[in-house]
Design brief:
Length: 539
């Protein structure tokens, strides 16, 4: 998804599941589109990198009408993509439009459209070797510049997104919202992976999954009534709504070829023609639900309560024995106490459901769907603000079923419990200094096993015990408009699989950056440059 036409990126945690249905406890990503404001916008963007990529874009926003009741913001972007991997190149484009019409003082219509395309050569993945005596031997790090995949291993995708939203103010305190959207993605993919390689010589097999005509169509409708009212000394922010989401998935058709390849010194591979079979029929998932949410304020207390009644249906493309329907009421409760005007203490509990997923085309049981995951989350902490710096400290526990592949079969592994501490702080500590930092410790382990009890007590795969980041920016007094920045990011050790038979080391990454704002002939000019991984290390 391109970001050139996005105003900002939000992470909606916790209660986001009430509004949007099936989401993981970590939350969802919400992309806010750029729209036309009172000030006209005409902007040109150019970017390049040391690999040779070149992308250009134009951003135009205007308001029209006697009272500026019509707005239009259009973004056009296109360019060539070059990666650090030799020969893993491609191109992309974006056309996006955000339109709005203030029909009356109480009625607003919004329309968003996106047309996206990206065609790039995709680097091969590396499959872990089978375990020997309970241990997996990892290969040494290959040279990241070497392309293991063939130069015809394209990932070619096209997408169209459309969303129409209607907001109508029934009164000064109540708003009725209706929105509908449709997203369609079509892609061809020649995904490859190395397996059965010799860790010393690198000789092994490269599986190339030649997939054609994958298609994903998502349709969403939502209506919501939101408003404010009072019952005695209590003020309520109340929301009541219904949403329905339908996803149609066609895995297309996949033909697999295997060729000899070397992990450390890869060879060019001539294109192998294949005869593609008939496209797979579409599977359908339907998620619909009613939700209600109330934020009740009384003095220094804020009480939050909500629930979503969900109905999730899955209809398999060909195997009706995999069809199922699941219903659940997911509650959310929380309390916030204003300890001081700048400090809040809070605690809460929520439940949610997320899609169990469909086995990918490369799995032994490709196309198999797993039932939704039901998660439970407890959290408590403190939020405060001091001299422009916002800080948060939280304790949390999440109980969540885990899915994954074992011996190529996508399946329910068991249930994991994740306990942790999360700290964050950020803001302007002075007019010229800004700091943004975060740290998280997670104690994660499997508490239940679906089939193999050996995973109980193990750490889930790809779950670091510690992650941390620190970003600092300084605006130079000697050169107005110039700001220098530095960032440090750390990811701790991670297990390779649920059986904890191998782990990858933790690693830090250090970045440097600079940005400069000036004017040329009355026009604003922003220049930005970043250097990632300044130590030039491989991990």
């Amino acid at each position: 998804l391109p970001l050139e036409n996005k105003e900002r990126v939000e992470v909606l945690k916790g209660v986001g599941g009430l509004y949007y249905g099936f989401v993981p406890p970590s939350g969802i990503i919400n992309l806010i589109t750029k729209r036309a404001g009172s000030t006209p916008v005409t902007a040109l963007q150019l970017s390049t990198d040391d690999n040779g990529s070149f992308v250009a874009g134009v951003d135009v926003g205007r308001r029209f009408g006697n009272e500026g009741q019509f707005g239009a913001r259009v973004n056009l972007v296109g360019g060539k993509l070059q990666s650090a991997v030799d020969g893993a190149n491609g191109d992309r484009y974006l056309f996006a439009g955000a339109f709005d019409w203030k029909v009356t003082d109480r009625w607003l219509l919004k329309l968003d459209v996106e047309d996206i395309a990206k065609d790039v050569v995709e680097q091969s993945s590396i499959l872990a070797l089978p375990a020997v005596n309970g241990k997996i031997t990892l290969p040494r790090i290959p040279d990241p510049r070497n392309r293991i995949a063939p130069d015809w291993a394209n990932y070619d995708a096209k997408g169209q997104n459309v969303q129409l939203r209607n907001d109508f103010a029934l009164t000064d305190n109540w708003v009725w919202t209706v929105e509908a959207g449709r997203s369609e993605l079509e892609r061809d993919r020649n995904f490859s992976r190395m397996r059965n390689y010799d860790v010393t010589t690198g000789e092994g097999l490269l599986d190339i999954f030649r997939t054609r005509n994958q298609k994903f169509i998502n349709r969403n409708v939502r209506t919501e009534l939101a408003g404010r009212f009072e019952t005695g000394p209590v003020t309520h922010d109340f929301t009541f709504g219904h949403s329905r989401n339908t996803l149609s998935t066609s895995l297309g058709n996949t033909h697999t070829v295997s060729v000899a390849q070397n992990l450390y010194n890869p060879r060019d591979i001539a294109e192998i023609p294949v005869a593609h079979g008939q496209d797979a029929r579409s599977s359908h998932t339907r998620d619909r639900g009613w939700y209600v949410f109330d934020r009740a304020a009384l003095g220094d207390w804020l009480l939050i309560a909500g629930a979503r009644a969900s109905k999730f249906e899955f209809e398999h493309a060909t195997d009706k024995s995999q069809d199922y329907t699941k219903r659940k009421i997911s509650p959310t409760v929380a309390a916030v106490w204003k300890l001081t005007p700048a400090t809040n203490l809070y605690a809460g509990y929520l439940e949610g459901m997320e899609d169990g997923g469909i086995a990918r085309p490369t799995a032994v049981n490709a196309g198999t769907s797993l039932e939704p995951l039901v998660t439970r989350q407890w959290e408590g902490g403190v939020k405060t603000e001091w001299r422009g710096v916002q800080a948060n400290a939280a304790l949390f526990q999440i109980e969540r079923p885990m899915n994954g592949e074992v011996d190529g079969i996508y399946q329910r592994l068991g249930e994991a419990r994740l306990r942790g501490v999360e700290l964050s702080a950020g803001g302007q500590i002075s007019p010229r200094w800004g700091i943004f930092s975060s740290m998280q410790w997670i104690d994660a382990e499997f508490t239940k096993a679906e089939n193999d009890q050996r995973i109980v007590g193990n750490r889930p795969a790809n779950t670091p015990g510690v992650t941390a980041s620190l970003f600092v920016e300084h605006r130079l007094a000697a050169i107005p408009g110039l700001a220098l920045s530095a960032g440090a990011y750390y990811t701790g050790k991670r297990e390779v699989d649920a059986f904890n038979r191998a782990e990858v080391d933790g690693f830090p990454r250090y970045d440097l950056g600079a940005r400069y704002r000036t004017k040329i002939v009355g026009n604003q000019l922003d220049l930005a440059a970043t250097v990632e991984n300044v130590t030039d290390k491989r991990y």
